[in-house]
Amino acid sequence: MTVVALDAFGGDFAPQATVDGAVRSAEAGMEVALVGDQTRLTVELERHKDVPSGLRIVHAPDAIGMGDTPSLDMRRRTGSSMFVGLDLIKRGEAEAFVSMGNTGAVLALSLIVLGKLPGVERPALAALIPSPTGEPTLVVDIGANAESRATHLVQWAALGTEYMRVVMGIEHPTVGLLNIGAEPSKGSPREIEVHEQLTASSLDFVGNVEGSDVLATDTTVIVTDGYTGNVALKLIEGSVSTILGGVRDATRDSLRARAGGLLMMPSLRALREAFDYRQYGGVPLIGVNGLVLVGHGRSDSIAVENAIRTAAEGAEHGAIEAMAAVVASGDVASEDSAT
């Protein structure tokens, strides 16, 4: 049985939201290791009449806060729920780790505890967004690396392709490069180099994807640096929120508008759900030697449950093994993978 370790004290609404999400997951048949202070978690679990047998507490006396600054001191936080949860993977007692906590701390501790997959230069964060096909698009990197080399982006394209193939079940993933124009000659020297390397690789590279086409393309994986990816993702999230809010306000202007709003409600609800971060619960940290998902700080119990489910499915389908194999194949080998 696949065991998912959950950082019970990660997120704005922890431990209530994390405990509730863990209970829901265990009730659905999943195995969850709830990592955190045993006394406080025991009290939280008392709110539930029947605690499923698939849920167990792993004691961790320390918790890393959302405002803590990731640093070398993280090495000393061996009693934190993040460190203990990641260590469960290293010791073979869990197959995946989920945290709704401090993203920088999760990244730092993942590198400290698990390390990188052999041959990987840098790990990256990836987010799923809707596409016209109904199948999600993976955008990578979305914030783990503000500065990146061409080889980093090519590796992320390969890792993202395997994640979408294995975890999301997309048989023939395609890859696009986020750029300022469709032509191969567009962009900075790095983007031109990435384009050349992806073209020469065995990946199904379809070319550049402009910002205006991110939500309109049927490309499976869109690769970019973490700075650009983070700005693009937040721009999409903010725009969708503003537009839906404007439509909601407009349907209240008159009786006719209210009637129209009622007719539009199912479509608007479907659109809102398509962009709901809770749908998958968390984004994968690809490139580390273990399956790690990072959720939104304001995650509720539904998001926590979905993150646990996504992590369990990724582990069961062999996501880490598939990503390790594609790097080991040498087709997208890094410049310094031998170091």
Plain-language structure description:
With 339 residues, the protein is an alpha/beta fold. The chain folds into 2 domains: 151 residues, 3-Layer(aba) Sandwich (Isopropylmalate Dehydrogenase), CATH 3.40.718.10; 154 residues, Isopropylmalate Dehydrogenase. Strands 3-2-1-4-11-10-5-6-9-7-8 form an 11-stranded mixed sheet, sandwiched between helices. Helix 7 packs antiparallel against helix 8. The radius of gyration is 21 Å and the shape is globular. The mean pLDDT is 89.
Individual helix count = 10
Q: What is the domain total for the residues?
A: 2
Structural class: alpha/beta
At the third CATH level, what is the topology name of the largest domain?
Isopropylmalate Dehydrogenase
Work out the strand percent: 15-25%
Strand order of the largest sheet: 3-2-1-4-11-10-5-6-9-7-8
What's the total count of β strands?
11
Overall pLDDT confidence? 89
- Globally, the shape reads globular
The second-level CATH architecture of the largest domain is: 3-Layer(aba) Sandwich
Largest sheet: 11 strands, mixed
Per CATH, the class of the largest domain reads Alpha Beta
Low-confidence stretches: none
List the helices and strands and how they pair.
Layout: E1 3-7, H1 16-27, E2 31-36, H2 38-45, E3 55-59, H3 81-90, E4 96-99, H4 103-113, E5 124-129, E6 137-140, H5 150-166, E7 175-179, H6 189-200, E8 205-210, E9 221-223, H7 226-250, H8 255-274, E10 283-286, E11 291-294, H9 301-316, H10 319-328
Parallel strand pairs: 1-2, 1-4, 2-3, 4-11, 6-9, 7-8, 7-9
Antiparallel strand pairs: 5-6, 5-10, 10-11
Helix pairs in contact: 1-9, 3-4, 5-6, 5-10, 7-8
